[in-house]
Structures
1.
Amino acid sequence: MTELELKTSLQFEELEGFLARMLVIRHFEQAVEERYRDGEIPGFVHLAIGQEAVAVGACSALAPGDVITSTHRSHAHTLAKGTPARAVMAELYGKVDGCSRGRGGSMHLYDVERGNLGSSAVVGGALGVAAGAALAFKMHGEERVAVPFFGDGATSSGLFHEAMNLAALWGLPVVFLCENNRWAESTPFAQHSPIDDLRERALAYGMSALRADGQDVEAVFHAATEALVHARSGRGPVLLVAETYRLAPHNVGDSQEYRDRAEFEQSRATQDPIVKLRERLALSDERFAELERGAEAITVDAVEFSRHSPDPDPGELLKDVYA
Ligand SMILES: Cc1ncc(C[n+]2csc(CCOP(=O)(O)OP(=O)(O)O)c2C)c(N)n1
Ligand SMILES: [Mg+2]
């Protein structure tokens, strides 16, 4: 398709919108890294640089009532699901205007009103929450789908198998969305997974499975749409494996001694989903710079807002604590 053909179709506008959202996530996370290194942001920070197309492609396919859960690497999912950058950044700063009112930080981003049932720092920890939400949708006869995001490492956890088993057994509307970045912290994929094609995990549960190129936002969008249609129509859950790249260390501060330097640099040079989409759309330098300025403005505003947001009231520390 030529630039002109793309530009005159709705598809171009949609894809450019995806690019704009991916750029917001990228700029946001680059600012997070900088502010974290300067000591402004406490705790641990895991960036999803390289994985933006998965978050944006999948969340763009959701219907308004659908819900997600997330992981320790949760900024991209939360932004893609519609939480304003200010609320995500303020949470990372531990401030009261954060989406979890400053009590969660980077690995515990919640926004129930916008369908984000929360991220869990426990690997695989939110899979049961998503299956539970899907059970509620089914019992209430609601045409809603739960989409837990999780990594390849989580497929070796017990919770993954329990949630897959029950979801399949009870025909729950879940799209299990695995982001296979081929690393679980410092453990390469081949050292924690006995199989290379993670769709095979679904076979044991009689579950449908799909695979998508996670660096191609359009491919993720189409695969997610197909999986959502399946789950929403009462035909049971789907495992969707997005093959992606972690174009960053596991967390900010990880020196990646375990990773082949040349492989890392090669991946960064050839697998950036933003560069790929920009090339596909044949965007001019001016237009791309314009989108980048928009993303930067949102990020700068979020940082300034978070710096000025008050700390939470220590008297509320035990509020909402149930156990
Ligand atoms: C139950 C549990 N075991 C171990 C850890 C430590 N840990 C944090 S992230 C991580 C790797 C997770 O890999 P993956 O699921 O592929 O997600 P990714 O980091 O690649 O996004 C591990 C082992 C944890 N948080 N929870
Ligand atoms: Mg991984």
2.
Amino acid sequence: MDFTLDSEHRMLQEMIRDFVEKEVKPRAAEVDREHKFPREAIEQMGPLGLLGLNVPEEWGGAGSDYLAAAILYEELGRGCGSTALTVEAHLSLGCAPFVYFGSDMLKEKFLTRLAAGEILGALALTEPGAGSDLKGGVRTKAEKVGDEWVLNGSKMWTTNASVAGVITFLVRTDPAGGSRSLSMIAVPTDAPGLIIHPAERKMGLNGCKTHAVTLEDVRVPLDYLVGEEGRGLHQALAILDGGRVGIGALSVGLAQAAFEEAVKYAKEREAFGGPIANLQAIQFKLADMSTMIDVARWAIYRAAWLKDQGLPFAREAAQAKLFATEMADKVCWEAIQIHGGYGYSAEFPVERIYRDNRLMLIGEGTSEINRLVIARHVLKS
Ligand SMILES: Cc1cc2nc3c(=O)[nH]c(=O)nc-3n(C[C@H](O)[C@H](O)[C@H](O)COP(=O)(O)OP(=O)(O)OC[C@H]3O[C@@H](n4cnc5c(N)ncnc54)[C@H](O)[C@@H]3O)c2cc1C
């Protein structure tokens, strides 16, 4: 499965797998059923260095590469979708703006604490009227007043907002509009005027907290600008390229979990005088599931590797995310089918895994947007 992984990555994988088996997977059903934020597991991950895994060492992180992060998301996804998305949103969306674009002051102030797991991070791009079309749709604005930014507007679907210490907002800083009118600004979650609404009720990922956020005359210093003024859209798209590898890896983990459940059940369940695993119809399903998971995993590893080499990876990331998330949808669907009626019951994990994966085809670039990205690259070359 992982012969391309060197000993360092393999050791990391084993360490995380062990942690997930002991601390994450056993809590997954309760996290889902009780809509419970997986606080215990998250708090344990800070001292293990996992909440700053691919943050540079000089800013308090473990300094690992993106392949390591992909391994982290996959292994967490194999144990619990809610925990995995919380961590993915923290690292890929919360930490990334500071890692790639933050000033030393912002890194010192926020990134060191994010990397240590003292606080979690979040990124607020989406708005009630803007998801895929951030360029045209973002209405949240920031104006310079004296030596401060004053922010007003509404964001939707901000993962981790209620458990985060800092949120980076994509805001319009030039009312004239256009691709150079958006910027990113960091806002501590205790800033007056920042209102985090109750967690959304969702189809799955019930332990991962996602919120609408309102900004009413929120004031932060001018140097809380993350990156360059007017480059917010460009920065957001660069962050999402990396995020796609993360979401794809998470889907590989979810698919792996559903597959393992299906194999176990097929060996145990008897029909027509023997285990259903003896039936060729079931064997073919398992063969297809295994094949698709492996192919998706390789696609994710390749995209992560390209990113780590500093090579172009946007097309490969979009392809990997598209394939892995849609693959996991099919694998989970088949895992439920193999379980028959029990697959539809909350007593078995496959229905939760199916629900948890559904978001992956929507968040950090829908399947349709990924197809557009891929087509653009194909037609350009
Ligand atoms: C649980 C959850 C967590 C989330 N976490 C975050 C977060 O932390 N931060 C954040 O900023 N956002 C977050 N999001 C928002 C998510 O990124 C958006 O929902 C997603 O980008 C799609 O945007 P939208 O919902 O506005 O859909 P729309 O953009 O309105 O799209 C609706 C449909 O139209 C399609 N479509 C749109 N444009 C095109 C096009 N040009 N060509 C073809 N089809 C198109 C889409 O693919 C989709 O099928 C989260 C969402 C959920 C559900």
